[in-house]
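User: Predict the complex with calcium ion.
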Amino acid sequence: MFDSTPTSAAPARSPLTIRMHERDNVAIVANDGGLPAGTEFPSGLTLCEHVPQGHKVALVDLPEGTPVLRYNVTIGYARKDVPAGSWVHERLLKMPPARALDNLPIATVKPEPQPPLEGYTFEGYQNLDGSVGTRNILAITQTVQCVAGVTDFAVQRIKQELLPMYPNVDEVVALDHTYGCGVAIDAPDAIVPIRTLRNISLNPNFGGEVMVIRLGCEKLQPQRLFPPGTIPLIDERNVADIGDNAEARLDVVCLQDDRHVGFMSMIDSIMTQAEECLERLNARRRETVPASELVVGVQCGGSDAFSGVTANPAVGFCTDLLVRAGATVMFSEVTEVRDAIHLLTPRAATKEVAEALVREMRWYDDYLAKGEVDRGANTTPGNKKGGLSNIIEKSLGSVAKSGTSAINAVLAPGEKVRQRGLVFAATPASDFVCGTLQMAAGMNLHVFTTGRGTPYGLAAVPVIKVSTRSELAKRWNDLIDLDAGPIATGEKTIEQVGWELFQLMLDVASGRKQVWADRWGLHNDLTLFNPAPVT
Ligand code: CA
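Assistant: Here is the predicted structure with calcium ion placed in the model:
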């Protein structure tokens, strides 16, 4: 994989390129700051121009029309003759259309079952529905954005006046969002934001408490948000006595209730309700549980050409470890797997799983087509600056997070995960939308890789941030939790960093280690995916 190994005398100076596959006719420059024109490699290749770090260099002459291969996949065709040693940037590449979704190889690869990984545990909060939390948080659900200001006001009061009396509760979080009214609530796709909100409220880190603040006149009425049977009957305390038909009771504060006279009476109602929930949450303690109780969402954002070389393969190795331990791992980001779909359908555990993968790709192709774009709209200026020429190159790096295991299940956006092992949770690739949907799916731990750098974090689920390059990890030493950069220089292996991540996950899940985003309180908004019309 490495054209040149840095010598111990001058590690930064030795020219280093990384090729992902022996058939590739381009490689990326690994050195910080890139390499100048005239740089000579041991292979005899000489650079004809400056090539920035992470960007591709032609290893051989590429006549016009030649397929340019990285990861042994055609990421584009040369638009003109490109001599060996040239910088192969996006303007030189013509991107092929997305692969058709018909006749894909289906469940053809049966990954060798790997030996179970036993004996790894973490300290978590066991919930009555069988899930396990990594945090003990009071979450306040809202039916509509109209109540967000009141909720935030109440949360400040709860934090100042109540939380100090309940030391076993980690945090109070308002589940603010922009949905709930002024929307076509009966449109078929409205199911996506509605079930997302419902399932977020049931995230394992909230201990089964569902406290709701509503306005009163909004479109998203509580019975639509939580139809009968959606809140687990966890014990007698939340059961309304309505004869034989026991039903979970919702703790709802309605701001338009006649009993509320003045703003402070609303706040008083919220405080009273919160106190009851805090009482119950405070009685909970961490217990030792097997690593199989982890539900991990993996994601990347601010990707660069190293994402698919260092951080994502290390996450992929860790994904395999988690699957061997019996845990659940979700990978997502439809536009970032679309160009690698031919590598995923063969790994589907069953024909039905492969069909569900194709269904989600097709749904998203149509969704993008309505907006008159395609998956190529995904890549950002930062991705390109980091060396990723187009979405094909980005996708091949992105899917490395999924490791090598069989894909056991597919979730539509906002659905709750019910299977163990590797799961594809279909989401947009937008960082905050993907994180919100993975939270709804039930993740209790989040792993996020970044090359350009993002301070991304979530209030309710710890986010472990992994950098693709050491330069970023050094510059953002108090934002990045793990550096996968040493893989690029050969100082560490993918396996070593994968194991470091696995151990870090157990520590963070147990509350023994705090991630930087939580240390600083850097938390992004919940961002619902609403493909339905706004009225
Ligand atoms: Ca993303």
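DSSP finds 14 helices and 23 strands in the chain.
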